[in-house]
Amino acid sequence: MQTVARQLGSMEERLLAFEALISTIDERQRKKIDALSDGINRLLMSQSKNDADLPPLPPPDFVSKPHPEIERDLKKVLRKVIVIDDNLKRQMKSVNNEVKIVGESLTQHMDKLTTRQDRLWNDWNVCQNEQISSISEASSSLSRTGALFVDQMLIKETQSEKALLHNYFGNVYDNLKELDSKSKHHLGELETTLKNIIKENSQDIKKRADNIAAVLNEKTSNILTALDDTAAMSENLQHSLTENFEDLTKDIRGLKKVEQVMLNTADAVLDTKRSIEFGIQQVILELSDTVKNSGKNIDSTLSDHINNISFAILKNQTISLSQI
């Protein structure tokens, strides 16, 4: 971007120099027109003083014209020259304005500058043709030899100035082409740099992705190993649970047998209890009969005491049976 800015600055300086050159050419053209007018006046004065010094005689139609008509024609020619000079000044001013606009926005108004340049060349050619025709008419009315000489000098100078302007415009066009090529070159370098940066970043991203993939693979392998270990532990645990379940099944079967034995024992105890109760009842009945037979005078307290003993025996048997 700095290179492009420097090139634009140099181009602006060249355009300013081109503007100064156009002003110089305008001033030079005006001086030449003034010199041409002075030369025509001197020719008129020399014609009035000494007719012998003139070139060969003019045509018959020129001889037949009176002197005031010649002066009037010359004045018309001078007015045309002045008008042409004013037109050139206006056109040069417009060209200067266009050059300033081009210096501010060179890329956007390149087509407009080319169109304006063509128009300027056309106007220049038209003005040049008008000048040549006017000067040719005035010179032919005064003297063919003098007019031819002046005309040739003017044409040569005009052609030289035209060639100079053409060369300068050619240089400007070449500089613009060079600026365009340099801009394209810098854009190409910028594109290459961006591609290299993108390529380096893509390689870096690829390396990081590979590293992440390696870490993920390692962690995945660790997880798989842990899962394998967990599966082995689960299998061992399942095998242990199966063995323990079989042992528990055996123990439960043994407990069922113990339960059957206890039930059988309980039945036997109940049978024993019934037998004892029956025996106690028999003892009580026998004691009662004995008491009745022995006498009815025994204190009632003895009977209560016997009843309490019987009740305590039955209660103790019931508690023992419940505990069993």
Automatic annotation (TrEMBL):
Listed under GO cellular component are:
plasma membrane
**At the top level of its lineage, which domain of life is listed?**
Eukaryota
What the entry lists under PANTHER family is as follows: LD34147P
Name by which UniProt lists this protein: Uncharacterized protein
What organism is recorded for this protein?
A: Armadillidium nasatum
- Lineage, broadest ranks: Eukaryota, Metazoa, Ecdysozoa, Arthropoda, Crustacea
